[in-house]
Design brief:
By secondary structure, the chain is of the alpha+beta class. Helices cover about 25% and strands about 25% of the residues.
């Protein structure tokens, strides 16, 4: 079955018991998002909202609610798509086995975009205010599009094969936007549209942008795929949908014939407006900042269009399933891109970008008597210079030695690192560099630091399996809680300033330096609530790595510099909430109560 529309996909899910229709009228202000979150948390089905207050259009969510559902949607095209991506990563395999890959090449050729006449698309012209104006979290700045496919072309090489299709959130209302005439376009660093925007600004020209919403789920997934060089998102969309991406041009704007909705407009050089706040996938609000404003040209919709949306927040959420499917499709790509890499895992519980676990190789000096990180450091630099993974703040990397490792077994992987890390040698910082736009732990928007923790060699210590006695009865940091082998959380006073934190931690490290038997606990987490941090692995990962900036929040017992290299005996991460951090996402209790009977 080749899925051609979002409605066909929804009927397919319903036929197979994976969809629930919501027949009551639901308010797009908080209620739809609250119901989605409850259903997702319960492991429930996809949702079709048949009556959206204030709009004649239906809406759908939780379509990609888990990996099994996503794979079900693409069950007839997934394997061929994987094979095409694999060929891009290893083109020599075609020469080695040409007949084996004949069908794969045929599938790829059928995926090329197909130009049609606009009249055949069946669109009607509408306004922004006709759309389901979904407001997700109480402090959001307005209504947002959360599953857009944002299309732009290279101003110097226009045409669909030089286009970028990305998922960059779109603010439809609120702030200073003039309703029906302007929308906000939020894109982060390291995004393809940024290259197009820069070129257009340099040429003194507006950038034409088309925003597609809906259509085959394959097109939505294409907008978030980190594809190999030379494989366009539009080609991938056709591959995974099982049918060529069909398009036309109207007034110079590309129109996806498969989309349920299309918004076209221009981004003019230097024009920005405040965008946000928005409850984001790290579990906090991204705050209000100037971002490009798009002057709306025209808005189109199919007569029976369905508006797809998702709700992002503290992981796991629906976008977690996106990540899992992407890993299935492109898991081997980074191995091809970075020699020596065996595995890279962006840890979802920590908000994806803040924390990476990686397995590399150690082949530089196989004759050396003492094993220590060498090639791993080269690989770490390559990882932190590659695409989206370059946004990571923390990279834990090792090489397999006496047993196989799996970065997705997070406790076992961290245990292996902590057993082997030499904290005087194995910490490598990058300061005053770029981090994720959504991460507010740094020194400014997109600004922060990174640390590589590269551990390899013989086991150096046995890790504590409970709170060591030496961590009881400390002056200011109490309530020690065991988190995992080698890790203990300490609850401290509320963070006031970095000057005060320096004094607090200086006092703490002096106390700890006098204690015996703490080598078994190489990592201490300073936090606001040690019981919460120790309650689950997810809590530990979320708090520790979304509330700390390596250059500012890493301290150590007996720390010192040796020729500009910093090291210590015990590592301390100050993961207390800082005044400059963005607020965490908290649902409206009254809205929660109102949607509870519908679940």
């Amino acid at each position: 079955m080749m899925v051609r529309t979002l409605e066909e996909s929804i009927k397919d899910l319903e036929k197979n018991g994976q969809l629930m229709r919501v027949t009551e009228e639901i308010d797009p202000y908080l209620e739809m998002a609250a119901l989605h979150l409850k259903v997702f948390e319960a492991g429930g089905p996809a949702l079709l909202f048949e009556k959206v207050k204030g709009s004649k259009y239906r809406a759908a969510s939780n379509i990609f609610g888990d990996l099994a559902r996503s794979k079900f949607l693409f069950r007839e095209t997934l394997q061929k798509t994987q094979e095409v991506i694999a060929l891009r990563n290893d083109p020599m395999s075609v020469l080695k086995q040409p007949f084996k890959h004949m069908k794969t090449g045929l599938a790829a050729s059928k995926a090329l975009p197909q130009k049609k006449s606009f009249e055949s698309a069946g669109f009607e012209e509408i306004s922004i205010s006709d759309l389901p104006m979904i407001h997700h979290w109480p402090n959001d700045g307005g209504a947002f599009v959360t599953l857009p496919q944002v299309y732009s072309e290279d101003p110097e090489k226009p045409g669909i094969m030089n286009a970028n299709l990305g998922m960059y959130r779109v603010q439809l209302s609120g702030n200073d936007y003039e309703l029906n005439k302007e929308v906000g376009l939020h894109y982060q660093i390291h995004r393809g549209i940024g290259v197009h925007h820069e070129k257009a600004a340099r040429l003194g020209k507006p950038l034409k942008v088309s925003i597609f919403v809906g259509g085959p789920p394959a097109h939505t997934l294409a907008a978030v795929m980190p594809l190999p060089e030379g494989l366009s998102e539009l080609t991938f969309a056709g591959l995974l949908a099982g049918r060529r991406f069909q398009y036309s041009y109207v007034d110079g704007y590309c129109i996806s014939h498969d989309a349920d909705f299309v918004i076209t407009g221009e981004v003019h050089p230097g024009e920005t407006k405040p965008e946000g706040p928005f409850g984001d996938h790290l579990g906090y609000y991204s705050l209000t900042h100037p971002f490009p404003v798009m002057r709306v040209h025209k808005v189109f919709a199919k007569p029976k269009a369905i508006w797809p949306f998702t709700v992002v927040g503290r992981p796991p959420q629906e976008d977690t399933a996106f990540g899992e499917l992407i890993h299935e499709l492109t898991g081997s790509a980074i191995k091809q891109e970075i020699p020596g890499v065996k595995e890279v895992h962006a840890v979802d519980a920590a908000g994806v970008h803040p924390l990476l676990f990686a397995i590399g190789s150690e082949r530089y000096t196989p004759y050396a008597q003492v094993k220590q990180p060498a090639e791993l450091l080269t690989i770490a630099n390559r990882i932190l210079g590659t695409g989206q993974v370059s946004l990571a703040k923390y990279l834990f990397i090792t090489a397999e030695d006496d047993k196989p490792l799996d970065t997705h077994q997070e406790i076992e992987f961290l245990t292996y690192i902590l057993e082997r890390v030499d904290l005087r040698r194995d910490l490598h910082f990058q300061t005053n560099t770029t981090i994720d736009t959504l991460d507010y732990t740094g020194t400014g928007l997109n600004q922060g630091s990174k640390v590589v923790i590269a551990a390899y060699g013989e086991k150096k210590r046995e890790l504590c399996q409970e709170v060591p006695a030496g961590l009881e009865g400390l002056a200011d940091f109490g309530r020690p809680q065991f988190v995992m082998p080698g890790v203990v959380a300490l609850q401290g006073p509320a963070f006031v300033s970095y000057d005060e934190a320096e004094e607090e931690v200086k006092k703490l490290t002096s106390e700890l330096a006098e204690k015996a038997g703490l080598d078994s606990c190489p990592l201490l987490i300073l936090c606001d609530d040690s019981a919460f941090v120790s309650d689950t692995l997810a809590n530990f990962l979320w708090v520790t790595f979304t509330r700390s900036n390596p250059s500012h929040d890493l301290y150590g017992v007996n720390s010192r510099y040796e020729y500009k290299h910093w090291g210590c005996d015990q590592l301390i991460i100050d993961a207390r909430i800082k005044p400059h951090h963005a607020p965490p996402l908290i649902s409206d209790p009254e809205v929660e109560k109102s949607v509870a009977p519908l679940v």
